[in-house]
Specification:
The protein has about 375 residues and is of the alpha/beta class. The chain contains 10 helices and 19 strands. The strands form 4 sheets. Strands 4, 6, 7, 10, 11, 18 and 19 form a 7-stranded mixed sheet that branches. Strands 14-13-12-15-16-17 form a 6-stranded parallel sheet, sandwiched between helices. β1 and β2 (about 10-15) form a beta hairpin. α3 packs across α4 and α3 (about 150-170) crosses α9 (about 315-330). The structure holds nicotinamide-adenine-dinucleotide and zinc ion (ZN) (2 copies). The site of one zinc ion has 8 residues, from α2. Nicotinamide-adenine-dinucleotide (NAD) binds near residues 211, 267, 286 and 311.
Amino acid sequence: MKGIVYDGSTTALVDGLTLRDPGPREVVVRIAAAGLCHSDLSYMHGLYPVPSPGVCGHEAAGVVDAVGNAVTHVQPGDHVIVATLAACGFCQYCMDGRPTACRATLGNWSQPFTLDGQPIYNFAATSAFAERTLVRDVQCVKIPHDVPLTSAALVGCGVVTGMGAVFNRANVKRGQSAIVFGVGGVGLNVIQALKVQGATTIIAVDTVPEKEALAKQFGATHFLDGRRDDLVAAVSAIKPYNADLPRGPFNAGGVNWAFDCVAHPQVTYNALECLDWEGTVVVIGVAGQTAEFKGLYGRLTQVDRGIIGCRYGTVSPQRDIPFIIDLYRRGEVLLDELVSATFPVARWEDAVHGLESGSVARAVITF
Ligand SMILES: NC(=O)c1ccc[n+]([C@@H]2O[C@H](COP(=O)([O-])OP(=O)(O)OC[C@H]3O[C@@H](n4cnc5c(N)ncnc54)[C@H](O)[C@@H]3O)[C@@H](O)[C@H]2O)c1
Ligand SMILES: [Zn+2]
Ligand SMILES: [Zn+2]
């Protein structure tokens, strides 16, 4: 079968991959569609300390092909979204509904594929860029047949990461204000979750001006070009301390929440500068392992501001994915509109160019 393999230096579409049979609690999923998340590019660029050669991709939906003899919640023919968390299901974190903290979800690499007799790793416990893949039963979330699989695929990472950051990691309240840096597949989902929560000022920032229309379609109330030097002042103008002063004592004024979906040092610095008293920066973007950021200590103590990170929306997939699909079916969040373009797997490089240009919400690869 076909798949996209990163060998440690280059990435190529190969034919001739084989996949082992499922163990008792494993599922083979025939991939219908897979979104290209920025983390896939980071993997292809060698940014992550994970083994290769590996089959890329981690944001997918498809049809169950085969199940192990102990799998009970899905069966062949079911439509599923694949979550990347191969959680153990038994530890204190899993039991507490926080499988993103389950220690079994990191470093559990395996080699379910072979190519010309050579074992090939999975990526993010998922490997979505292949005609079929092998995952743990807990990773498969069953969805209704009427949800288009191209839209459902994006829920596997970008959607849960963005919405979960708002619903789970942060606790955004009705009437609050937020700024979102990076209007990509993740940032758009932060924006629409903020709207669901009832945030009344939602400022989107991107370095690609064409993202303004998308940001506003998903619920942004303002858009700022991320390249402008006076970005922080522009935020103060939107959310001033009072009618006469853009900023008050200890930098009062600004927004309650800043979601950093970029992870560039200047972006994180600006995010902290944009906060009102008691505001919080939520860092979602993933930078290199040794990347650092700077900020003023005084902003944190004066007064009660914070910076927190968020992995995979702090979601519990079997709880949060059906909730998000329900919001979609009720018309409260957009999924179809996230699919800017679909590319048959043979044209996967066009999907990469679309993501690199910053022009797409999501480019989706189909099988
Ligand atoms: N924490 C997690 O679990 C998790 C999960 C998925 C993705 N991610 C990370 O989140 C980030 C975003 O992913 P994505 O798939 O949405 O990427 P994307 O490429 O779709 O979107 C990124 C957006 O940021 C914009 N941008 C770039 N530099 C900017 C700047 N200086 N200021 C403002 N905007 C800027 C780009 O134009 C683009 O629109 C990546 O770092 C990705 O690896 C993290
Ligand atoms: Zn666990
Ligand atoms: Zn991702």
